[in-house]
Write a structure and sequence with these properties.
mainly beta, 3-stranded antiparallel beta sheet, about 60% strand, about 220 residues, 8-stranded antiparallel barrel, about 15% helix, elongated
Length: about 220
Amino acid sequence: MEIKKLIAIGCIVLGVGNFYAQTLELSNSFGETAVVKPDSITQSRVNPIIFVEGFTGIVDESFEEKSYGLSLNYQLKSHLFSYQYIRNTNDTDIYALIPIKRRNTNQHALLYGQRFVFSSISLSVSAGVSYASIQRKIHDIYSYDAPYIHGESYWGMPIELNFKLFKNKRKPFGPARLFGAKEPVGFGSSIGVKVYGSISKHNYFGAALVFGLGWHKSYKID
């Protein structure tokens, strides 16, 4: 299945699942912390910061290589921990004088970084370790019974810089409002851009448009 289809299916499943979760007021399951006010003591709850993202962009020196990816992110204070999958595709490669129909690079990475939130904006920078493998598909007229050439696998150091926009306070989740849900929630969407790359045997750098779903900041519930 094409990676674009996998990303689309993942985003749809995530959105539907979280819609039902929000209608059941998942925010009630978040931990509680006592907050002292004059003349009284009330309870204040704050959600964890966790979100998933899908992105698509272009990489390589000539920006002819297409890139798709998914990531799962968790933030604790200013510390950002991420798992990321990226697939880079090149349709104009030549390998050992054999015309290649497509070259796919699949990369899995664990990253650590710092993320800073300003109202409805976030900036983050991350780096980590990655493991990638290359697969080349030969043009049909040359493939015979071996349509793929499996290339080498290698380790690298992924790096990225992110800029995101999201809601600055708890509001009803957009799609849920179509079904009458009016309860304000921290769960929501985000949009942004990233500049990213990998320092490895096969270096690359690029830029992508990013879409996210989740809890992008700590929203206080009084």
